[in-house]
Input
Amino acid sequence: MPEQDVRAERILFLTGHLALKSLQRILDDMQPLPFEARALDVGINVAGLMTAELIRRRVPVPVDADRIIVPGRCRGDLDALSQHYGIPVQRGPDEVKDLPQHFGRKAKKRELTQHDVLIFAEIVDAPQVDIDTVLATARRYRRDGADVIDIGCLPDTPFPHMEDCIRALKAEGFQVSIDSLNTDDLLRGAYAGADYLLSLKKSTLWVADEVDAIPVLIPDTPGDLDSLREAVDIMTARGLPFYADPIVEPIHFGFTASIVRYHELRRSHPDIPVMMGVGNLTELTDADTSGINALLFGIISELRIGAVLATEVSPHARRAVKEADIARRVMFAAREDNALPRDYSDDLMTTHQRRPFPDTPQEIAEIAATVRDPNFRIQVSEQGIHIYNRDGLQVHTDPFALYPGLNVAEDGAHAFYLGVELARAQIAWQLGRRYAQDEELQWGAAVEKKEQDLMAHCAPGTTLQRKTKRKAADAPPPADDTQDQA
Output
């Protein structure tokens, strides 16, 4: 039987004037490729401002390709475009320099939908707040990834509405744990419907015989692994479910030894469910919690620890639950792939980024030399902040040093706009983060992300609205690539 020729996939990459050379150079550098690549300038300056409607107008049917890739920030209905051209139309990365990663390992990575760790999120001040506040906090924790809402009791603090809190949470579908060393609190919570008890010692295991809630076992005294093992063996012999928690201690108060205890417990009891409370590290260390969570969840993944207790007491730990959710998914995927936990998500890199400056100063200068309009473009490289239009290019690390050459002293709207953008650019340069003009800086899990609707077109910025209204009667039709730039 004669061999059949297998034709390589043909991919058409759409771009604009300013990015065309860069796209072509990147595609050349990516050779050899498993597909045939061709770049097409659709007649727009800024590729990121491309829209589905513009593509439909400027790229005629039929297209000599099997697939079309548009810039990641392209707005509009790509499914409708796919039907129009009869081939898939897909978004690529936001930055053209990320194409190698997009078509390399990142294209193969799994969606971070799987994990094997339960997150218990503690409401530490539950006795001191009303039920509505408890519910509001629980809803936020659930949105951030928590599986169980932990109701923290306080020593010598009355909690008359404990039962009502638990019943209200259960009515909204939450799993609930009650957190106290007082057996009366634990019994009250379990009778009200709590699913878990934090925590029981060997001397209080009788509570587990009284209720159906699943206990978390801890040592009789800090660091006493033997008493925890004895409690584990008793519960195992009884055939009752539990989690075992050797307890992570704060740094300089037994941290290293406590991590060793987790390893020892897993070695001696390879199949039991284990919990780790991470608050003694995230709350009691003045460091970004995203990095602490990443490291702890690496340990959690290696030791197959099945549950964590997270807290958000200190203001600097206010995203700890969300970070825990991201970390458990990243570490699960990396472990399943037998790979390093890299290139799965940038969400735990809240301060710095691995590839912050996609463009070199030379590449930016080449682009700047082709600009023929008065709109300012701003980019960031290792060298600093680059701002340019048809009148020239300026580069500096201090935005104030750029102001005299901008000639916007008589234009308050543009001065305000450029002040905001240059401040963002300076922060991005100082920290080593990506900067994209007209976009807020991205801080990973540290900041709640705004939902971006790529089907909708961006409205003019507030600095242009008054001018637009004033000139609406006699203004010419806007160009396809106008944006809120000076």
Remarks:
- The two ends are 65 Å apart (CA to CA).
- The first strand starts at residue 9 and ends at 15.
- DSSP finds 18 helices and 15 strands in the chain.
- The longest helix spans residues 412-431.
